[in-house]
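Bug: token stream looks shifted between consecutive jobs. Job 1:
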Amino acid sequence: MGTAQQQDRHVGKKRLLSLLTAAAVTFAASVAFVTGAGPAAADPVEQCTATKGAIVAVDFGPFGGDVVRGCDTTPTTGYELLHEGGFTTEGTQHDGDGFICRIGTGSFNSGTQYPTPATEDCVLTPQATAYWSYWIASPGQDTWSYSPLGAMSRKPQAGDVDAWVFGGTDVGGSTGRPTFTPDEVRAGGGATPGPTGNPTGGPTVPAGEIDVPAAARWVSGQLREGTHVVDEGSDTPNDFLTTEAAYALAAANGKSLALDKVAAHLAGRTDAYAYPAGADEPPAAPAAARLALLAAVTEDDPRDFGGHDLLGDLVKNVCPAGPESGSPTPGCTAKGDFHGATYADGQALAVLALLRGGIEPPAGTEERLTQLICQDGSVTGILLSPGEYCDGDPATTGLVALVLDEAGGHEAAVAKMRTYLKKAQLSSGAFPAYNGAATGSVAPTAYAAQALRALGDGDAADAAVAWLSREQLDDGGFGLDEGATDAGLYATGPAVLAGAGTDLVTLVAKAPEPTVPPTTPPTTGGPTTQPTTRPPGVGPDLKKGIAFLTSPANLHQGRYYRDNEKTGRADFGLTIDGAFALAATGHDDNALRTIVDFLEQGGKDGEGRSLHDWTGVGGKYALGGSMGKAAVLAQAVERDPRDFGGQDLIAGLADAVCEKPSTAPDRSCPAAGAYTYAPSVFAHSLGIIAQLRAGEEKAAKAPIAYLAGLQHGSGAWPSLIPATGDSEVDSTAMAAMTLDLVPGDAHAAAVDKALSWLASQQLADGGFPGASGNSVNSAGLAVQGLSLDAEKYDRQITKALKFLASQQNKDGGFNVAKEGQRGSDIRASAQAVGGATGVSFGILARSLKGTTPNPVPSSSTPAIVTPGDSAGGGGGIVNADGPGGGGGSLASTGAQALGLAAAAAVLVLAGWRTVVAARNRREAAAGGER
């Protein structure tokens, strides 16, 4: 699979640094209430309520202090909340104020900022095991989650709580969380808002009904030859969406010839869909369950459907134990899982299929669903292992509530989910896609409506359906999210069931009763309008993406992206990311030329810094990943990396190869064969790519061996160096691209294994998991990685491109992730655009001959101490609004949360990771190393 021998193979584009996963630090502070003093800048804590303002809490426990909380009644960003809440910060010399390295408050030790210079010099990004991580909780949530955005980009809502904790964490956020709960630091002792509108009947909204016949016509129009749905741009049947179409047709029209044709087609696809490993192997539980439910809906026999006993095979393939047993079974996360269920909806549908078939679900299968209920009553979409961090969503909660209510015996669990759904409903009647979102999403609203109606909350269900009716498009279909203009089956299917007042528990396709002859001719089943297609094919609009990236509002003077708008400090890592996207697409070569000339000619930002103040080449803090990233850009645009910006980057990389691990306090070299100050697999890979592209295979021998040695048996790579045991999509894609570039076939098997692992991580909607959730960055990198074998992974690439298209906004930019705050993010957009091309960094090339640089336009931030008590040293939550203050100015804190994982170090490398905010670590982030 060597790229050296297959230069024509398109492969991915680089993405943000993988995460900052790091070992978790357990804080020993106890939780007690104490009073504390804070700077005058902080609003009184009592002024922040469940419906006004937001609270920020900083845990000084590791330094002998308390948990100090502050209030801002009108926060615009998480950075401002921290600042106005009474805290001061300091950034790093390399990343600037945008990366929070120290935090202080007048409420503790006279405003001393921690960690002190004696333990952290704050020259480079702090190590991943000792930095300030960023956590958030929305109203009604009593558990913490990583912020999908960093403090500079996150926009807190009324009743939100932010927390800053010093220590480390891992990619999944399962370790290193605050030792106190959100309710323990909320204003008013944990008071949270109840359901919007009428607390018992649901929000008051204008009445509305879904035009179910129109929706059914749209569904019929999506069927190829009237029998099945295919992936856009291909002839490959999409069995999942075909089952969705069948359910919708059954709900809308009952028993019909059209439904019979679809059911017959799916019966013929049973082997391919439900038994992909072979008829003698365990079935894919979600697929077998969906087909069994179709059989129940159409009054067919699920014990003899497509030549298989679907129910019998589900019963025979329940996991006896999970990884904790010491001998884990593939496809099993925990005891009680259906083999290969993977997600909560697959587990729930399998239980429901058995219930509808008159079979008692095997022991542990229903209980497994109850284990997925989070503290706030929501249900997580992933089959978590016991003890993992839990954060649910309305769609999964609605489905699981329906199933457990039908199963019986789970009254307390169902009541908890019902309460969550009531609280999660927005004043519009809609339900958000994820906790904390302020806008509605169609599928979650449809599933929640189905559940609430079944549980007796008819008014709340009616409000949800009324909102859905206003989202129905002129062609009858539904888009994914509020205001969407393109319909999709994933959203339309459940909306039809909600509109018809039914659900998968009760749906049966009955023969229609005789009716009075219609006054208008019957429909033929065809669509009212042809489905829209996105020219020239599947995927996001790359020209619009480039227009967003090169917009004067984003690309400062057409030369660089800013980390700090006030000082004009450049984020050089992010700037190179943007240049990679431009090079990959070729949509604005003059803009690319302008950026490259600025970097190569020693252009200075608003603080007088040039590219090599960021790479550190030739100095004490030479950053291997940063040098590699700059060198790859030079190579991609046919400039000389041996004389780029007046420095020999290739020689710098050779000098940066570690001969042995360094000893504390020197943390430059984690291992022999690593590069100095390259804290992540992503950063390390960039160094190798640069050396290989320069013909320095011999010099790269040790780094290549080190990278190869980091691969897990599963085929995945960890995010950080030294490795912390996690597995990450971003790092795996990048490592695969890197080893694929090595001449010969020595690493072909490793690359093949990596791609197989990547494909296995794809989510149902085409996205990929990352630190920020269902991550745009991870999807972009996955496309690049899978494009190393584009023919084999065409289906996965197509789905990922559709996912990226779904996350592109009207301005051309992209969201950081499917979950979390909406809005276009420069880092995510750069990675999405470049990644969507499928071009690997190993072969990325764009000639600038004949181009002209654009003219430069003129120029014109645990114990709980209760108010009134004394703020002691350790174990309390202190308010920062009392007399005594110490505020000080808050440096740009919160570099993009993205960097959580590799963030700590990752930040240093490539601003890419910052965008991944998931890693909570940085947000405004100073070009972290990726």
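Job 2, same session, no restart:
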Amino acid sequence: MTQPLPAPFRQPARLLAWLVTVVALMTCLAARAEIAETTTAVDKVVSPRVSPHDDRDYRALTLDNGLSVLLVSDPQADQAAASLNVGVGSAQDPQDLAGLAHFLEHMLFLGTDAYPEPDAYQAYLSRHGGSHNAFTAPQDSNYFFDIEPAALPGALDRFSRFFIAPLFNADRLESERNVVHSEYQARLLDDGRRAQDVLNQLLNPDHPTTDFSVGSRATLADRPEGEPSLRERVIRFYKQHYGANVMHLAVVAPQPLDELEEMVTERFAEIPDRDLSRPVIKTPLVVKKTLPRAAEMQSVRDSQRVSFLFPIADPEQAYRYKPADYLAQLIGHEGEGSLLAVLREAGWADGLSAGVTRNDGRHALFAVDISLTPAGAKRIAEIQASLFAAIELIRTDGLAPWRYAEQARLADQQFRFQQHGSPLNDAMRLSMNLARYPLEDVNIAPYLMEGFDREQIMRWLDDLRPGRLLRLYSGPEVEGDKVSPWFDAPWREVAAKSDAEPLAGLALPEPNPYIAEDLALLDVEDADPVKRIETPGASVWHKADSTFDTPKVEWRFSLQNPAASQQAREAALSRLLADWLGDSLNATLYPARLAGHEFEAYAHARGITLSFSGWRDRQERLIARVLDQLQHGEIDAASFDRVRYRLQREWRNAPQDPLYRQAHRTLSEALVRPQWPSDALLEASKTLDVEDLRDFRTRMLANLHLEAMAVGNLDAALAKHEARLVIEALSPSLAEDKIADLVPLQAEDLPTLTPATTRQESLVLRYLQGPDRSLDSQARLAVLGQLLKTPFYQRLRTEQQLGYVVNASYSPMLDAPGISLLVQSPDTASETIQARIDAFLDDFTKRLATLDDAELAPYRQAVHDSLMQRDTSLAGRTNRLWHALAYGDTAFDRHRRLAERALAVTANELRESWSALRHDAVVNVTFDPGDTPSDVLDLSRKLAPLPKGAE
């Protein structure tokens, strides 16, 4: 289970167009909701407002016990999902039991009166292709799952009992305390957590969100004799804070509303009505008389950042008008003349975001976060002065009705053509919004902008003054005279005031030229992508798609060169070129991003891909601008240095990534070619200069093969027109067979691999590779992975408490099938973990020996349904088709064929495969503190390609 950072979700400036809201004309929209007859369990029924292209059916209910429910019937959904939000979190932890709310979240899953087995819930979900999780935030605890629709009643049976009659099993208390402690230990080197820990020392110590929230063995220790036990305290907290009145349930599924309502009322009407209300925090977040205030913190990663924070009223109370978001978009703008643009020009910063954090319903912080260069880290005073100069510019010239109207127009477009995410994401979003907004606004609230009010905006702007500043700098060079209490971050207080001069050149943004005008939906549709253009050096695929009811288009252009990653030097240059392209266009194209046009350049083994996502209208203008920059833009020394520094910082910090990620990366570096580890890229980049990058651009663009795909609301004529513009500009001439494929290698005779890491945990990643890349092998291992998932987690995490990060799953590398078994532990050595995995696999072998096809059937079905899940967004569909094309699946049906093979897998076939799978091609990635890293490239140099196998 996860617990997010203590700070609630922060809105970076570039996302504010998505987060800000719609003009008042949208208030007339009505949902297509069927109003059912009131049952005895339902107190009232209302309807939320939805976008005009949302044809799903909604029903919002309040049960007699006070539970708020939102039902969404989506006949096209191939998964069902539910999320229940409880209006209590870590802010309500007792003073003597830090982390109790989080600990309760863990304990809640371990059996109920009707389903006492600790794994009853998880095992049921796993058998039916589902997943689950939960998180504890300062004022919310959210529980959620998804599952095959036919199995939804059984899932709700089990889920609902958590909130009616949980057992809080005394036998599991110690194991879950250990798991919570492991979660805490895994976060100790997280710079975000460390920064929050230091920030809490600067905020009001009486504010309940400034306390430790994760929990540990020490804070959750057994109670002294004579006091109520820890289990009794958990039960007391549950009864004090878990009641129907502070719960909000969202269910998204394909079943009709009447059927969903019956499912919910039958199962959730028993939740006790304890006459609770959501806790209100009246204590100020900041003691204003202590301001201005500043501190410096030592970071773990090689990264330098500064945050400027100001106490404000929580703008959630003004969600219909978004005054703080209006200011955040102006301060966080990245276009010409923006604060970020002048800081980049000075060589002091390479990133900036602005938004609201630490909301508690009444109080919040307005934050401006800046990612610094080493030169910028020495110029904090000038950066602070420049920030206040930018704020003053907004105060004098930035409060204009046309600017507000432009933001509202963009929000209107986003809401009108909103794409639904997965049922699970929708259910989570809706349950959280139900807790914050009136029922009728749960969909539209993040988009509402109901009118420009200068005085209202000024109230928030007036709080952004030097005398109200709270500043936090973090960098690896800081030497502290204090240590934060929970995450051991060295820090010190410093002077906050500054009389430095600001940088010149600040300007407010001009009207946005990229706002789409033509939003008509074209009636075009192709079943699968069609090859529209084929030349000796290029192929272009197109799929007209109107299923998402949005006039948007996704373009992918893969610029392929055979030398792009054959050596570490070329791979580093590919990354530099891709990152330079995005960096050099950042200010120019930022208005396009605000208007809904996204562009990204990313390097890969075959070259560089240019990815475009946005409105059909004006996308051609964006593509042309990017191509011109790629071919003719000046690569100057300043931009080269900035991009190289950013990449080198990423590569230097790789050993500090979460250990489980490093283990998977080590495995991939051993078994996929071509691929280069971070240390090789870092070393190669040290000898490169701006002339090397200029020369590489010339060489790469002179020898290209182009592969492209367009998916979305455009017809064949427009797709061919835009593709020909790209082909004419780039003149690709290289044949497709000159581009090497990525190759998965056969995992035989590899010694144990050790990642190059600075982490202090222990880890084992055992990888069982399939015999070949055939569909039959992929299907068998996918079903085995589904069988292994729940019992592995239950045994090694829940029962044996080996660590917080424990999982078993089907983990293919490209099209090479494999199963990964992973355990990361704060205090159990890898040798012990290996022995526990061996014992588990011995027992699984016995289970497999008695498995019959009837018992196997739901696991096969779960794999099939996962492979056949519908695409929930245009971008998701495009990426799926794009990946299929990269694997040579020009019929775009490999996932269907694999799903059919999965349904045909028999228990006997699994038994026949298991022995060889367990022993023949096994890779172990292990780590204990102090281990010497492996030379992965050298150890895997002689590995042969994994055979394709018979189809």
